[in-house]
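User: Quick one: structure for sequence A, then sequence B.

Assistant: Sequence A:
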Amino acid sequence: MDTTGILDEALERLHATGPERNGWLTNHAPMAVEALARHGHAAAVHRWLDAYAPKLEEAPAPHAPVTAANWREALGDPARITDWTRYFARELADRPWREVLAEWWPRLLPGIAGGATHPVIRTGHAVRTLLAPGGETAPRRAELAHALGYWAARHRPLPPLAPLAAAPDAAAALSAVPPVPRQEGGIRERLAQLTAFPVWGSAPDPDTAKGLLTELVTAATHRYATHGHGEPIMLVHAATAPNAVLRTLPALPRVLWAPSLAAAWTASAAVTAAYTPREAAPYAPAGLAPEEVFARAAAHGDDHTIKFTDTALDVGGPLALAAAVRSVELNPPAL
């Protein structure tokens, strides 16, 4: 946990920028600096931000305020990103953040794949900071407003999906996900081709849902070790998106845990279908301690690599660490 105040400084610095760049590429800086600070690299945060800063853009101009009366028509409209951020900033100024999150979580879950799953990932990082001891600071509440606003603006449900044969566990379910027919173009073009997923993840109670979600994060992280070469950047989201949901569960009413599992499975399966390679590849054991693996990711500097390694450390164990090292090897360094 960052006790230096550097994370809050970094978030304040970033809140003058928009959540996207170059059209609709995501600004990953809020998520990456949170992971750096959490794993003992707060001293490197501003240097990392200095290197990332040329990619950042100003927040888009506002259009018209989002309100309790008109939010449905604004949902999924990327031109309303700033309107949505301002709406959530007002909500979080007037109400406890857990109350706002609980109200909006089920509204946003159907669009979990929107923005290539980055909005839910940003939300998971924001919630983790707020749940930390002494974490309910103004910059962290503002970060939740930015994350939820981004998600609302990029909200995009997947096409209707038919059920395929049931899978016995998460690893088997991911292996049974059919690749989209044309693995080319951006993620929106790929997700539009989805037609069916294996049946997996039925949870009769909240604790079962949490256990299955943990299993899914573990399976997706492990799978990266053997399949990450299919698309090294995009496939990290098959693990980081469900892990963002898992991190958020402690802040949510338990009645929302089972639907959260279902949405997380959909997100992980969608990314897997869009980018998974046809064949597995060998990997080497990491042979490093967790803190050494994260230090390697931090020195590498790529935002996706940092976030995936953060998830791999949540999973723990030799195969997760090997997957994290694989992400360092596969993705181009940024520092």
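Sequence B:
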Amino acid sequence: MSASPSPSTRAAATSWVVSLGDSFISGEAGRWSGNSNESGSGYARTDRAWDPDAGASDPHRVYGPSYDSGCNRSDVAEVQSLTLDVHRLNLACSGATSTAVLLPEHGGKPFKGEPSQAGQLQKAVTGHPVRAVVVSIGGNDLGFSDIITACASNFVKPFGGSPCTPTASQQVAERLPDVRQAAVSTLADVKTALARAGHPAGSYRLVLQSYPSPLPDAARLRYPGEKYDRLTSGGCPFFDKDLTWAHDDLVPRISTTLAGAAREAGAEFLDLSRSFEGREVCSTTTRQADLAHPPSGATSEWIRFVTSGAGQGQQQESLHPNSYGQQALGTCLTLQLQQPAGDHRCTNTPGRGPGAMRLGPVT
């Protein structure tokens, strides 16, 4: 009978899963477990960076040194939340566009003091087996944050505010072809970096994922009537028309665009567009935490509510998956990598936590 491999041999053979791209995969907003407007006990125990002994919050407890650069790679980011026997490496950075990932010879540029993510990938996995590389890109190339900010600004205008949809929908239509090409080019450079590191096509999984909707349609909002409680209480300051457009049109169109990019580039596609259905910020099927109702993955929102940055947390954390959302996305990626290579859609199980995600065919 042959001896079992030693722990060091097994560790050396353990493959890597690497995440590249933007804030939705870097772990932005992972500091928060749900949302709360109560300041006591670390915002009703939603602030994972809160140190009860010190009576203060330190975001480094969640984001580590990446907080100083603003990349905000959280300890529960998607790749960190995998339940697979793999090495995990998160090279993604909040705010990144495709140029932060591309190789320098193809227009890649340093971002927040860090070199090309594809270049970092090449160095990191040289001499190591790679199981998968997962990429989240396109939202910042589209200008998603600026579009949503403009929509929120229209809502909070004292006078003359109106839905942003007519203008924003035209901007999106004009920009989506470039978003698709940016994603295709990004995936091509990821393949090049892996080939240079000794990993030929077919020896690893390459997954491009889309984005979960951060907002419900207007019919499922906890705050009816387009009143200021959407801003002051809910953190979802948007007109009904804009909510429904973002949920029913914007997010699906981005997903369709990225699915096309994945096909063109020869990558798998993971559709996350409906993964947070019923768990969005201000959704009727969720509740904010308070001192009597602690945060819970089964009842809390999975998206960080809109914040100005003057109070709790950073403005850049707004409308990103919080710790529950990131754990849910980690479950989605786990399920994807447990299946044979292919395109899938990930959805949640109503009334249950991040571990109860489901994978099905893309429809």
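Residues 1-11 have pLDDT under 50 and may be disordered. The radius of gyration is 20 Å.

User: Thanks, that's what I needed.
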